[in-house]
Prior knowledge:
This protein is α/β, with parallel strands linked by helices. It has helices spanning 11-28, 37-61, 79-85, 99-107, 172-186, 221-233, and strands at residues 67-71, 112-120, 124-131, 136-138, 142-144, 150-151, 164-166, 193-198, 204-208, 213-217, 243-247, 255-258. Among the domains are: 67-131, Ubiquitin-like (UB roll); 136-258, Cell division protein FtsQ/DivIB (Rossmann fold). The protein has six helices and twelve strands. A hairpin with a 3-residue loop joins strand 2 (112-120) and strand 3. The termini are far apart. 17% of the residues are buried. Mean pLDDT is 81; it is low at 1-17 and 264-280.
Amino acid sequence: MNAPLQLRAPAVATRSRRGAARAGEKSARGFPGQRWLVPALFAVLLAAVAEMGFTAFGEVTNVPIRQVSVNGDFRFIDRARIEASMLPHLGTGFFMVNLAQIQEELRRLPLVHDVTVRRAWPDRLLVYITEQVPVLRFGTDGYLNPYAEVFRPEAPLPGVEIPMVYGPPGSEAKLLSSFDTFTEILEPTGLRISSLVLDGKHACRMTLSNGIEVLFGRRDVDKKLRLLARLLEQQWADERERVARIDMRYSNGVSVAWRGAVPAAAPAPAAATAARPAER
Length: 280
């Protein structure tokens, strides 16, 4: 019986291939340091780039500020004073200059309302200033801006003739709002408000442009003012220049103090005096 045929590769060839494989492995393992060569070169290159970047950043940071441009529509602010206040910041590095500090310093000046400061490459600072706008005097030495904020310049503002308001701390917004409302109510009379004052208890008194002093008390001021406007426009139209003082602190009438002699026929209710005591 014939045995099955078996094919085998020559033993010599097998040994040759195994020998070649072992030789290849030995060749690959022959220089173990080469596998770290590329990462090492990359690290060195990265370090060099970083050093160059830090050097360039340092040079840019040390570029000194040489110019300051001040911008804004000024009526009262002295531009030269603003520029002089910026002198200590000249020569500071472009990125080292403290913008927040500059803004805070400028905001402390009496007539400055708001400030924006920014850098302009390569060596400039741009300063934008919003000046305070006075809409009313506040007491003897202050002014109210349109936001009911009080500011006090170092001296009275030249050429500014505006009415005066005054009241306790925290009453600024109420004074500004009341002034606008009262002005609108009085418009038909042709008279303007010269001063408007709230005392510590928020009792209101007002002086008109023709010198009439009006006492309103604390309650129903708008209602009393509308009555006053009707009296000045109608019943008292011919005699109002002779009125010195009007007391409207009563619940059912008013009292009037006249300049000089009382008119022979005082129009009602001009001569009427309330039966109840005045509201204090």
